[in-house]
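Predict both folds.
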Amino acid sequence: DLLLDLYEPVRRSNGRRPLVVLIHGGGFSGGSRQSDDMVTIAEALAARGIVVASIDYRLSPQDPEPSPRVAAAAAQVPTTVPVFNGMVAAIDDTLTALDWLLDHARDLRIHRNRIGLVGSSAGAITADHVAYASDDLGIDAPRIRFVGDLWGGMFIPLDFPAAARQLDRREAALFAVHGADDPTVPVFLDDLLVAEARREGVPVEYHRVAGAGHGSRATGFFTREVAPGQTAFDRMLDFAER
């Protein structure tokens, strides 16, 4: 069984509301939808009038079996390697969560055409693939309006420039943060993705943090000003709302 935590805006609205699906990190082997970072992001987005679903997904130690839906993604990586098997399962389960949310869009008052994805580390990698690679791989997925990519990038297929080139014109706007000295997820993955977004004319905002490592503390995501009076976290909230 997979669970999600639903955060709804306190501000009353009679209309359909935008949705962000929040995907936690943890190297595809751990992590939690209820981590402090995920809760902070979810509550802040909900305060902006956005419905947030912070989701579970199967992890590599559970030896997940990808569904036929993501067979094309599985064929591009060695799923005998646990991290790649977990990566494909996370894509699979994010799509399943989106299916469930859209099946209940009327009851949840979700606007079907205003969907964003925000992920951290493994969650960012997952968000990137759902938004930018699904159509190239023949995987049915809803249209995503924006991606909040926190120290992520594209791995599928295992040709990194080719993976980034799956981002096409008119696909999701991209907000990215990455430490320039990240020892866990190489910064060049987001460099490639951001360069492709700019080449394709996709709206993009990139905070490449000099000397920083991996994660919210190392990059100062919640604490370091990247613009007068604003952190990268503040900037992402503005980007999501736009």
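Second protein follows, with its predicted structure tokens after the sequence.
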Amino acid sequence: LPPRGDGRALPAADARLPVFVRGDAGAWVRQDASIEALAQRKTVVVLVDARDTVLLTPRLPPLSGAKLAQALPNAVEDMLLTDPAACVLALGPTIDDAGTRLVVACDRGWLEAVVQSFEKRGVSVLAAWPASLSLPLQAEGGTLACVHD
């Protein structure tokens, strides 16, 4: 998806989006398509522009399941400029032995509207990934992702 920008508008139904599909040889091929044209695909994975997500690294207690989900908003509250309830929080892997975890935050209302814009055309969103994490992170050095040209 292109970045939201100041207007927080969703992409228009006829807006051309970069789409990656598997070619005949199994390699990923870039095409440009509208949300309307994606209706033939039935399922998509959405890459959210890095400007629309926040990567956080809170220290979390060694909890699992529902208890961890309950503790997560409190653990990231001081790291966000907004109420954690207004965000979708996705828990990533443990980064170190001290319990530091990767957490991705994205505006809940906007992401739900994006998913609904696909679903009303019969396209199921399997996942939403921050573009900054769409490539494997390297333990040493860096990873550069060029998204949307």
